[in-house]
Amino acid sequence: QVQLVESGGGLVQAGGSLRLSCAASGITGSINAIGWYRQAPGKQRELVARIISGDGTTYADSVKGRFTISRDTGKNTVYLQLNSLKPEDTAAYYCNLDERRRTLIFRYWGQGTQVTVSS
User: From the centroid of its chain, how far is CA 104?
Assistant: First the structure.
């Protein structure tokens, strides 16, 4: 069973930075995609950034130029560097991993880490 453990959230002032980490374990297939979503109170969960195997990286328009996703394949860890944070970035951030086993894709979520940006 795949497990995702996130860390790095916290409270930061507007304009500040944070770095989120997500360590994956229990993978038996291949990683089809790995990335980050976020959900603010009263809103739907939305994509922040994602690395798709063989297809590069995608970012939400609202974070382009401010957030950077990266991956350490040897450690099965994905990072999200959050710079120039804004109050509207406040949300619970969830790590996501899509594992491919033969022809099937299995989707996993972390428990979430809170990012709060004060104005």
Answer: 22
